[in-house]
Design goal:
The complex is a heterodimer of chains A (558) and B (508). Chain A has helices at residues 18-24, 74-88, 105-112, 148-156, 191-195, 207-215, 247-256, 264-284, 297-306, 320-336, 354-357, 370-379, 401-404, 411-424, 462-473, 507-524, 534-544; strands at residues 2-5, 8-11, 48-51, 54-57, 68-70, 136-138, 163-165, 172-174, 201-203, 220-225, 260-263, 291-292, 343-349, 366-369, 442-449, 452-460, 481-485. With 558 residues, chain A is α/β, with parallel strands linked by helices. Chain A has three domains: 2-72, Ubiquitin-like (UB roll); 87-204, Alpha-Beta Plaits; 208-554, Rossmann fold (3-Layer(aba) Sandwich), CATH 3.40.50. In chain A, the strands form five sheets. Chain A has a five-stranded mixed sheet, with helices on both faces. A four-stranded parallel sheet of chain A has the order 11-10-13-14, sandwiched between helices. The longest helix of chain A has 21 residues, at 264-284. The radius of gyration of chain A is 25 Å and the shape is globular. The N and C termini of chain A lie far apart (62 Å). Chain B has 22 helices and 13 strands. Chain B has helices at 3-12, 14-21, 42-47, 52-60, 63-73, 85-93, 115-122, 124-138, 152-168, 198-205, 234-246, 248-252, 285-292, 326-331, 350-364, 370-387, 393-409, 413-417, 420-428, 430-439, 465-469, 495-499, and strands spanning 101-106, 142-148, 183-189, 229-233, 262-269, 275-280, 302-307, 313-316, 340-345, 453-455, 475-477, 483-485, 505-507. In chain B, the strands form four sheets. Chain B has a five-stranded mixed sheet. In chain B, strands 3-2-1-4 form a four-stranded parallel sheet, sandwiched between helices. In chain B, α4 (52-60) crosses α11 (234-246). Chain B starts with a helix and ends with a strand. Classes of the chains: A alpha/beta (558), B alpha/beta (508). The interface between A and B is medium-sized, with 34 and 29 residues. Bound molecules: flavin mononucleotide and iron/sulfur cluster (3 copies). One iron/sulfur cluster binds at residues 136, 152-153, 157, 159, 161-162, 186-192 of chain A. The site of flavin mononucleotide (FMN) has 24 residues of chain B, from β4 and α18.
């Protein structure tokens, strides 16, 4: 089928919108509320194009045979400009101080359409900033009511913390009863901060806390970096989506003033060992009910909020970052003879929810997101792209491929499988479990471990988790092990990762590229099973095995 | 029930029909205050041929024939847009789906309009009958009446009607011993104007926030619970039984070339006899205002009529002979809307009136799309500025730009129509805007900041009447022994001017 856009003819398929056709052919159309598959309500009115003399929203109008579309003329330009003028007239423009500066779609459009401050007699709505949540800061004075956050929170995550309140000019995005996010059902996953086109929803900024810690000279600052950060950070400096970059990241952290930079991949290897032990124990004892993975704090919160009866099914294992923190503060401090009180462990995470985890564990002193790290690097005027490539500090940095792939959905399961299969069946050489990798939000796998058959389930995205829980609750499904990551696609698409321009790339592609980058690296590694990690072996040999109750530091107290 | 049973009930109560016949029977609904043809009671309704149209449709016509009859009648939707009803039915009928719905729109959010309420209160059975006919025609077995909760009597009577009709088996299963089943329930709306918009109404029915949705897909394709849904206004439906019973030719004999039938208007404002009037479509504005309404209050000059509810347009007196039909009104920048007509006399400030109507749109916007949510507020602020005498010519320019922007870019009918009062007054009464801006004058004396009362000392006889009547003691006797107004105290109520018997007080 053919459609005419700006006097040129293009092919299109059934069910494609005008915007789809334009994007495919690199015809630029701005969007604010549109998000492929997630939000297509046509409420922002920025994507208007002209058809038959009338303005229509291209994001949700299907292309039709012989339709004549104009994307660029005075009428279209003026319409978009007016829409932006309307938005700016109710927007607290504080761009240079805004956490979204540089990533803000709205700001980009203001510049593109030459929109300046509006008339002085236009009254702006003014509300208090909501910083009640330990993870997310909400500033409604910057909200343009695009509705993306509501869609992602309600549909993708099934949390429904954010909904529209009031109506007309007074409409605002908020929580029920106008509570703060802390008193809502919010689980802190931060997906809303990924999609918000403005600075209205951002991670709670804790860069100042870090600067403070760095300035206190007696502190020994240790950074530890989560697996998926290394495939996102470089994007902030113009590299391609999913670029694998450990060297310059370590280098930048050192420049910021960290004394040591360790790798949470190692922590993940410990988690694999402990969690698979727990699973094997369960099998041995014939313990019923699924064992839930526990590394995702938003998932933990989700269970607490919506399925409190199942909290006990969570693995007692701490998350990789907490495990590594515990190892640093116990084993490492002891072996290096450092006063624990001087050690400050800072996690660099793809995750906003980790900021709330502090309330659960005590071994990590501060959690910063990938975005905050990128911002700090820019603030400190570090020329990231030209940094030398440095290595993580030993000894807490040797990792196996199993630890690395924790950064994507299915990673935990695959890592646990790599180890358990080997344990139960030493001849087995199976390393890759493609069935559990990216793709659908919920995957079920049956594996044979010797005589026992295991039913596993891998879930990412909380709507899928809710469906899973309903199935478990109603008895429709039974599993032995369930891995849940709150963010769709796992931590690679975590709520704290670098913001990307969804006008240019779909969320699905972002997930895929970053995850793929981890898998590629995993393939290159010699050691891909956590048990084979020599540092893991060494620490167990020297520290945990001689006094087994020390293992408690790797677990939450139930 | 069988058809014979229905006939039996009619015969028993035929005396009631005779009684009615003696009264002047106006048109279709016979809505007129002095004519008590209320048919809320089921036996009385049956005595007046009630449910015979349903019987006729079910027993003698197939589905296509019913739809064809409505198409031939040229009936157009009375909810505002005037969409051909038959066409809508056909579209619904042709949808492949196991489940379909019929929804009756009785949200009626226009201020000052109460024809839908009257119909629901007085003719609840006609609505049930029409919905069942519609259900039969399009293949739906479930109907929903969406009525605002502020109409408790309508709710009560509709509920009673459902109970009574179900008892007799006129709705429910196997109606007239055919296989046709049709059940009706009520949904109460909380009174948001925008919930009258069909897609918002559906969302509200589903228990969601009442926000309109982009069309297409139309409700006829994907409506309530994503199933094909026929939404008709209650007045549209009220016409159906008579069309089926008397035939489309009878219906076509009323009304205009391209708009058939009658329409109920809610006449209000500065008119002697405000109220509901049913007129054949194509009657003129003059007829409505002077023949039905008895002319302008206090015999003042007619300045304009506002047609089509809060987002309609103001039509100046010179178009008084315009026929009231969908096309003619649209050409003038107004619309039929739901049939609200507000009469304005010479004391009306057209700038102020457009501000007034805009206020309604600002309050009732659902807040979903940018042009309506923010644009209308800005429009209001600009007019406010002009009314306060602070407006500039560039404001006037911006007013027009913005109004057109909102009209062209809003998502639903509310936003698209909300600038109509502004655009129509700009078109027909631009000089008043210019007076406000350039001369800082409001000729109607409505905009307080632009109005000043002054006592002309050469005419003042110092009778002290104004002094006594002024509610804020702004008038004092000055050294010359004449009365003077303290402009700082004056609230521009105009009472002094009205009281002065010597014409000594002027308004500037
Ligand atoms: C803002 C807005 C408010 C509306 N309010 C009503 C209403 O109160 N009652 C009504 O019947 N239709 C209302 N409509 C029209 C409906 O959307 C719809 O067109 C109508 O119910 C269709 O019925 P009809 O074809 O019988 O006219 C409204 C439309 C808009 C845009
Ligand atoms: S952080 Fe997650 S749960 Fe909380 S409001 Fe945002 S999307 Fe919803
Ligand atoms: S907070 Fe952000 S994502 Fe949510 S509606 Fe406002 S601008 Fe959109
Ligand atoms: S035009 Fe107004 S009422 Fe309609 S969707 Fe937009 S904001 Fe809501």
């Amino acid at each position: 089928m053919k459609i005419e856009i700006d006097n040129k003819t293009y092919d299109f398929n059934q069910n494609e919108t005008i915007l789809d056709v334009c994007r495919k052919n690199n015809i630029e159309i701005p969007t604010l509320c549109f998000l492929k598959e997630i939000c297509h309500e046509a409420n922002c009115r920025i994507c208007m194009v002209e058809v038959n003399g009338r303005l229509i929203p291209s994001c949700s109008t299907l292309a039709q045979q012989d339709m004549k579309v104009i994307t660029k003329n005075a009428k279209v330009f003026n319409s978009r400009k007016k829409t932006l003028e309307m938005l700016v007239s109710n927007h607290h423009k504080d761009c240079v101080n805004c956490q979204k500066y540089g990533y803000c779609t709205l700001n980009k459009l203001f510049m593109q359409y030459n929109v300046t401050e509006s008339k002085e007699f236009y009254k702006k709505n003014s509300t208090q900033i909501d910083d009640s949540s330990p993870c997310i800061t909400r500033n409604n004075n910057k909200c343009i009511l695009c509705n993306r956050c509501q869609k992602i929170c309600t549909q993708t995550q099934s949390v429904s913390a954010l909904t529209k309140q009031e109506r007309g000019f007074e409409t605002f995005m908020g929580c029920a009863y106008n509570n703060g996010l802390r008193d809502s059902t919010c689980v802190g996953c931060g997906q809303c901060t990924l999609v918000c086109p403005t600075g209205a929803l951002v991670e709670k900024d804790e860069t100042k806390l870090l600067t403070q810690m760095l300035s206190e000279k007696e502190n020994i600052l240790i950074a530890q970096v989560a697996p998926s950060v290394r495939v996102s950070l470089a994007e902030a400096f113009g590299e391609n989506i999913g670029t694998f970059d450990e060297g310059r990241m370590v280098s930048a952290l050192k420049k910021l003033g960290f004394k040591y930079v360790f790798d949470i991949n190692l922590g993940a290897d410990f988690t694999v060992v402990e969690e698979s032990n727990e699973l094997l124990e369960n099998i041995k004892n014939n313990k019923k009910g699924p064992l839930f993975s526990s590394c995702c704090p938003a998932w933990f919160k989700f269970l607490q909020n919506f399925y409190p009866d199942y909290v006990n099914n969570l693995s007692s294992c701490k998350s990789p970052t907490e495990m590594l923190g515990a190892i640093i503060k116990n084993y490492y401090a002891q072996s290096q003879n450092i006063d624990v009180n001087k050690i400050k462990v800072v996690g660099i995470m793809p995750c906003t929810a980790k900021k709330g985890e502090k309330e659960r564990g005590e071994d990590v002193d501060l959690s910063l997101t990938t975005r905050e790290l990128a911002r700090l690097i820019k603030q400190k005027n570090i020329d990231y792209l030209n940094l030398p490539h440095e290595k993580f500090d030993s000894p807490l940095s040797t990792y196996s491929g199993a630890g690395l792939i924790f950064g994507t959905t299915g990673g935990v399961t695959e890592a646990v499988l790599r180890r358990t299969i080997k344990l139960l069946n030493p001849q087995s050489n199976q390393i890759e479990f493609l069935d559990v990798r990216q793709g659908k939000g919920r995957k079920e796998v049956d594996v044979c471990l010797g005589e026992t058959k295991l039913k596993l389930c891998v879930v990412s995205g909380l709507k899928n988790a809710r469906e899973l829980m309903e199935d478990i609750k109603s008895g429709k499904k039974e599993y032995d092990f369930v891995e849940v990551m709150a963010c769709p696609g796992g931590c690679v698409n975590g709520g704290g990762q670098i913001n990307v321009d969804y006008d240019k790339i779909d969320i699905e592609e972002v997930k895929f590229k970053r995850a793929n980058s981890l898998y590629e690296q995993d393939k290159k590694l010699k050691v891909r099973n956590s048990s084979d990690n020599e540092i893991v072996q060494q620490i167990y040999r020297d520290f945990f095995i001689p006094s087994p109750n020390k293992c408690d530091i790797l677990h939450y107290h139930k | 029930m069988k058809f014979e049973d229905l006939n039996e009930i009619k015969k028993k109560n035929i005396s009631f029909q005779k009684k009615l016949k003696n009264q002047k029977n106006n048109f279709i609904l016979s809505i007129k205050d002095d004519c008590k043809t209320k048919l809320e009671n089921i036996t009385e309704y049956i005595a007046c041929d009630g449910y015979f149209a349903l019987a006729k449709a079910l027993l003698t016509m197939n589905r296509q024939q019913v739809v064809d009859e409505i198409i031939k009648s040229d009936l157009r939707g009375r909810g505002g847009a005037g969409f051909p009803t038959g066409k809508k039915w056909e579209l619904c009928k042709n949808q492949e789906s196991e489940k379909k719905y019929v929804i009756c729109n009785c949200d009626e959010g226009d201020p000052g309009a109460f024809m839908d309420r009257t119909i629901a209160e007085d003719y609840p059975h006609a609505i049930l009958e029409a919905m069942a006919i519609a259900g039969y025609a399009i293949g739906a077995d479930e109907g929903i009446i969406y009525v605002r909760a502020e109409y408790p009597r309508a709710v009560e009577r509709l509920n009673q009607a459902i109970v009574d009709a179900s008892k007799l088996g006129l709705i429910g299963n196997n109606i007239f011993e055919t296989k046709f089943c049709f059940n009706v329930s009520l949904k109460l709306g909380a009174g948001a104007f925008v919930c009258g918009e069909e897609t918002a109404l559906i969302k509200s029915c589903e228990g969601q926030r009442g926000e309109p949705k982009l069309k297409p897909p139309y409700p006829a394709e994907r409506g309530y619970k994503d199933k094909p849904t026929l939404i008709n206004n209650i007045e549209t439906l009220a016409n159906i039984p008579k069309i089926i019973l008397n035939g489309s030719d009878w219906f076509c004999s009323l009304g205009e070339e391209n708009s058939k039938g009658t329409k109920v208007f809610a006449l209000s404002g500065k008119v002697k006899n405000a109220g509901l009037y049913e007129l054949p479509i194509g009657a003129t504005i003059k007829q409505l205002v002077y023949e039905c309404g008895g002319g302008v209050l206090n015999d003042k000059q007619l300045k304009a009529v506002q047609m089509g509810g809060p987002s309609g347009g103001c039509i100046p007196t010179k178009f008084c002979d315009t026929k009231i039909d969908y096309e003619s009104l649209k050409q003038l920048g107004a619309m039929m809307g739901s049939g609200g007509v507000i009469v304005m006399d010479e004391d009306t400030c057209m700038v102020d009136i457009s501000k007034f109507f805009l206020e309604f749109s600002v309050d009732e916007s659902c807040g979903k799309c940018t042009p309506c949510r923010i644009g209308n507020k800005r429009l209001h602020e600009i007019i406010q500025k002009i009314c306060e005498g602070l407006g500039t010519l560039s404001d006037l320019n911006e007013l027009e730009n913005l109004a057109n922007y909102i009209k062209d870019n809003s998502l639903c009918g509310l936003g698209q129509a909300s600038p109509n009062p502004v655009l129509s007054t700009l078109k027909y009464f631009k000089e008043e805007y210019l007076e406000h801006i350039l001369e800082k004058r409001c000729r109607a004396g409505v905009c307080k900041k632009l109005t000043k009362y002054n006592i002309m000392h050469d005419k003042c006889v110092a009778c002290s009447l104004c002094f006594k009547i002024c509610p804020v003691d702004a008038i004092y006797l000055d050294d010359d022994g004449k009365y003077t107004i303290d402009q700082n105290k004056c609230i521009r109520c105009g009472k002094c001017k009205a009281s002065c018997r010597f014409g000594a007080i002027e308004r500037k």
